């Protein structure tokens, strides 16, 4: 249940919409053939039906029959804007409590029932204006989803008590430590909002609240908040997906109709704060790189000027083609990153320019350059090309949001609350249609003045936090008189509804063909929205790095968008932005990938760009030197983040010196400095070859259309020189249990990485391993996460997983725990591991975790990007296409005995390496107390 940082845009939908006339969507026809999208009369719209029950509960139905899935998206129209003074974080804490049990769904059972039904995208979130609760279920579970949602809304107050409150206070405080205090720049963002908003304004505090306020919330406060805000007349449910509207209306009335409405809601009226003189502050944090934030108050969501500022944000910092990226990152090389956004909310918005500086760069110089660009945009309108790039990007983002029923439901719910109209898309589009270069410039001149802003300079130094708030002992039982009810008891609700008739469980199939040059093409067609995703996958990952050249594979992949023989880096960025597409490159452990995603109309030009990057890289010396500086700074940034550091040290310790996978994918400072054009080109010539690659494409393209696109682009591709002799990765060395501690003085949490060698892809018992791991630590409801989070309150979340590659296998448990319980958390973790190996799962647990893997499969392949990622990873791991389509049969065959054998074979406590990154003074005695002799290593994994 993640709280969005106050400075991020959780659901700002106006920035996702575009000029209607530029859209090319299929016309509405039979609902079984197309999504709930229409372009009648040139307007982009979501076909929906809104109902209001007698008790004020709003329901919006969006029929979409592309997949046998239904998204349930419940918005309660309450957030920090509704919190009382001294109760920051209340709305977000309440979000957590909503999952802690209700009258008819005992504590912990909500998430277990969602797992057992094959649910996906199950979570909640809070922003300043609302709290939402969502999951997606197979379409035959419509009644179950409504039963669960109605019990959360109507009968949660019956079960919340001092025990569940204390537990979730611990969990939320751990979330705050993880998201703010142990995350680089977390306290900087909080300080910015405190400087923007005065005392008493509901947006002043972070959504998650302060430790003192979270800990100070009483059970009586929770009950009062529920009586006021968690009532049917203050909530809206969107159902989006494969259902019959008549049946849905009847079931909604059955499950929500008897809920009693609440009192008239207190009106929230808050004037937009005025800043008449620039406010400047310096915040020190445990960071490696300094950061500049410039922030202004701007118009509320959908108010005049909001759309223009969205466009301005794109022009200034909307990607590699933007002005500030080109100036600060590419040309001057003063910045590591640039982000610009209009974070729109109901009471007022914030326009934020965020620049992370390179080592040694002056924030004063950066600020001067940023000021000049803002002033230039205020004085001179953006070009038509810049406006077109922004609109193209916005258009693609909107359609991608409609591709998934979960995000489609959230889109509709946002319009309903923020604009008062779930069908607001057409009017929103009109705002962007009316935005002109002159109006963007005038809006910037009006709102982004130096006298009206906050300037935050984040610098490396001591992290200054308020005094520690003690964590009280967890109560063991509820007190007398803690129960109350808002709604009458209805005996029939005690039994969960059964599932309807399930539709056949099928996964998106793919076909494969090979070009004459040896390039494998994998194609999964998907009609509907005019979207296409593609990935060129090459066996050119970290494992292919030559001895003594760590990071080379990643360096080569990073250089591909930085110039080809015919295009500069800037031209590549501008061409991508003009298509409204995304084009990214990366290198993982075993493969390199070039990924494209965009509209079908841009597929030809997008794939041409992808081919140009892969086939004709320039490796120009100036770009190499710029990339060196970028990568050296990224190495420094990695040291800031305890979870990344824990994982890096774990790899180094477990694989051993000299292994290609032992070092950071970025390499080392020495290896980065040693790279030149000849080294890069040599790796590219050896590894970027058609017989060593696969092009994976999913979306609205037939095979004939795809062949016509790719033959001219890739057909003549030939590898340069002789192909290298394939040398398998050396095996991970046999290891014994070991504990390593990396000191991070003052850290409020300990980041843990518990790792061991694991099986490779294609192992016969892969399905048994995955089902077993789901029970151990793979699911939110797993044994480890339940014990450490829900029972003990030690962590915000901790999970386990198996990485199975072609030549690489690893098991890992990763998460962060409160510093003072590091030893206790590890002891509990070991008990769960031993328990997993000691006895078979019971029938109920096995059924739940097996179904969580099996029935959720359609929801895991519900976008083009997900399909491409699945088949790309499958090819990289050396598996046949059928490995994906046969997953249902494999999961269905798992038994308690086979899962136990998998645990005993692939989960050996004697081979687990524990890496803990935390405060040595506090953590080392705990490790010794549980019998773990720890080696203290530095951030490089050395004594």
Automatic annotation (TrEMBL):
Gene3D superfamilies in the record: Metalloenzyme, LuxS/M16 peptidase-like
The keyword Signal is assigned to this record: yes
Domain named Peptidase M16 N-terminal: residues: 59-197, 531-642
UniProt KW Protease keyword: yes
Domain Peptidase M16 C-terminal as annotated: residue spans: 217-392, 675-852
An example Gene Ontology molecular-function term: peptidase activity
Entry keywords, A to Z: Hydrolase, Protease, Signal
Signal peptide per UniProt: 1-29
One GO biological process term: proteolysis
Domain of life: Bacteria
Residue intervals passing through the bilayer: none
Family: Belongs to the peptidase M16 family.
Protein name: Zinc protease
Originating organism: Roseateles saccharophilus
């Amino acid at each position: 249940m993640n709280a969005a940082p106050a400075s991020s845009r959780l659901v700002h939908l106006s920035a996702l919409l575009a000029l209607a006339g530029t859209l090319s969507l299929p016309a509405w026809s039979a609902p079984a053939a197309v999504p709930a999208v229409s372009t009648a009369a040139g307007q982009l719209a979501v076909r929906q039906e809104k109902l209001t029950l007698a008790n004020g509960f709003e329901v919006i139905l969006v029929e979409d029959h592309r997949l046998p899935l239904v998204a349930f998206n419940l918005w309660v129209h309450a957030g920090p804007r509704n919190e009382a003074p001294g109760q920051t974080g209340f709305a977000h804490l309440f979000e957590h409590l909503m999952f802690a049990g209700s009258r008819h769904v005992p504590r912990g059972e909500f998430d277990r029932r969602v797992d057992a039904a094959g649910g996906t995208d199950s979570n909640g979130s809070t922003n300043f204006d609302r709290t939402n609760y969502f999951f997606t279920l197979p379409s035959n579970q419509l009644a179950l989803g409504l039963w669960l949602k109605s019990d959360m809304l109507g009968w949660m107050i019956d079960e919340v008590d001092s025990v569940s409150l204390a537990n979730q206070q611990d969990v939320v405080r751990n979330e705050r430590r993880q998201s703010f205090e142990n995350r680089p720049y977390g306290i900087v963002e909080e300080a910015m909002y405190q400087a923007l908003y005065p005392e008493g304004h509901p947006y002043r505090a972070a959504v998650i609240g302060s430790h003192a306020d979270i800990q100070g919330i009483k059970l009586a406060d929770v009950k009062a908040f529920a009586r006021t805000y968690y009532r049917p007349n203050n909530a809206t449910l969107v159902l989006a997906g494969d259902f019959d509207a008549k049946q849905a209306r009847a079931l909604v009335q059955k499950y929500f109709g008897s809920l009693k409405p609440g009192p008239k809601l207190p009106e929230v009226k808050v004037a937009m704060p005025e800043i008449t003189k620039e406010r400047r502050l310096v915040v020190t944090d445990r960071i490696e790189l300094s950061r500049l934030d410039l922030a202004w108050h701007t118009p509320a969501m959908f108010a005049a000027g909001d759309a223009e500022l969205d466009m301005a944000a794109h022009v200034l910092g909307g990607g590699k083609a933007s002005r500030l990226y080109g100036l600060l990152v590419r040309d001057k090389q003063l910045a590591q990153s640039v982000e610009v956004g209009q974070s729109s909310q109901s009471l007022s918005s914030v326009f934020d320019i965020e620049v992370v500086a390179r080592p040694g760069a002056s924030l004063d110089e950066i600020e001067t350059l940023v000021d000049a660009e803002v002033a230039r945009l205020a004085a001179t309108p953006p070009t038509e090309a810049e406006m077109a790039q922004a609109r193209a990007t916005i258009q693609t983002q909107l359609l991608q949001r409609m591709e998934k029923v979960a995000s489609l439901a959230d889109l509709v719910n946002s319009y309903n609350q923020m604009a008062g109209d779930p069908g607001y898309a057409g009017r929103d589009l009109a705002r962007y249609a009316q935005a002109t270069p002159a109006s963007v410039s005038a809006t910037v001149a009006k709102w982004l003045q130096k006298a009206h802003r906050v300037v935050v300079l984040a610098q490396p130094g001591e992290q200054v936090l308020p005094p520690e708030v003690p964590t009280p002992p967890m109560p063991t039982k509820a007190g007398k008189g803690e129960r109350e009810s808002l709604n009458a008891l209805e005996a029939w609700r005690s039994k969960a509804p059964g599932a309807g008739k399930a539709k056949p469980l099928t996964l998106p199939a793919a076909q494969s063909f090979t070009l004459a040059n040896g390039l494998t093409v994998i194609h999964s067609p998907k009609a509907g929205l005019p979207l296409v995703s593609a990935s060129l996958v090459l066996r050119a990952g970290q494992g292919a790095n030559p001895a003594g050249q760590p990071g080379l594979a990643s360096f080569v992949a990073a250089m591909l968008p930085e110039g080809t023989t015919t295009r500069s880096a800037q031209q590549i960025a501008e061409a991508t932005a003009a298509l409204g597409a995304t084009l990214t490159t990366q290198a993982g452990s075993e493969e390199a990938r070039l990924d494209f995603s965009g509209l079908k109309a841009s597929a030809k030009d997008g794939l041409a760009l992808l081919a140009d990057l892969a086939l004709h890289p320039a490796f120009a010396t100036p770009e190499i030197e710029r990339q060196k500086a970028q990568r050296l700074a990224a190495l420094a940034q990695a040291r800031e983040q305890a979870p990344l550091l824990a994982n890096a040290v774990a790899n180094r310790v477990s694989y051993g010196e000299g292994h290609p996978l032992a070092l950071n994918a970025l390499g080392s400072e020495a290896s980065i400095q040693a790279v030149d054009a000849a080294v890069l080109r040599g790796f590219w010539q050896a590894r970027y070859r058609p017989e060593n690659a696969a092009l994976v494409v999913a979306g609205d393209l037939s095979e004939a259309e795809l062949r016509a696109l790719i033959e001219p682009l890739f057909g003549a591709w030939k590898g340069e020189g002789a192909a290298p002799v394939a040398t398998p990765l050396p095996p991970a060395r046999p290891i014994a249990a070991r504990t390593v501690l990396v000191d991070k003085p003052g850290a409020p949490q300990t980041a843990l990485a518990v790792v061991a060698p694991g099986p490779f892809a294609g192992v016969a018992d892969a399905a048994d391993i995955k089902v077993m791991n789901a029970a151990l630590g793979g699911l939110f409801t797993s044994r480890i996460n339940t014990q450490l989070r829900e029972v003990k309150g030690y962590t915000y979340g901790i999970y386990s997983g198996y990485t199975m590659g072609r030549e690489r296998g690893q098991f890992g448990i990763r998460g962060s725990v409160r510093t003072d319980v590091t030893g206790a958390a590890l002891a509990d973790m070991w008990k769960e591991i031993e328990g997993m190996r000691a006895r078979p799962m019971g029938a109920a647990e096995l059924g739940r975790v097996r179904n969580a893997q099996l029935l959720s499969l359609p929801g895991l392949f519900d976008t083009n990007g997900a399909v491409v990622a699945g088949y790309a990873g499958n090819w990289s791991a050396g598996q046949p296409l059928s490995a994906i389509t046969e997953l249902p049969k494999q999961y269905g065959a798992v038994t308690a005995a086979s899962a136990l054998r998998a645990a005993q074979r692939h989960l050996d406590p004697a081979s687990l390496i524990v890496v803990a990154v935390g405060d040595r003074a506090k953590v080392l005695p705990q490790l010794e107390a549980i019998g773990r002799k720890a080696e203290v290593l530095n951030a490089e994994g050395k004594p």
